[in-house]
Amino acid sequence: MRRRSGFTTAPKAKQVAPAMTLVEKTAMMSSVPAKVIKAA
């Protein structure tokens, strides 16, 4: 995954990653309890 071109895309990925992780965390936290309730 990490190539010479990766160094140029890394800064952009770091800027986008935090926003994506926050969205994913909120989505996972909200979806996991729902799955647990359905499973229970």
TrEMBL record:
Protein name (Swiss-Prot/TrEMBL): Uncharacterized protein
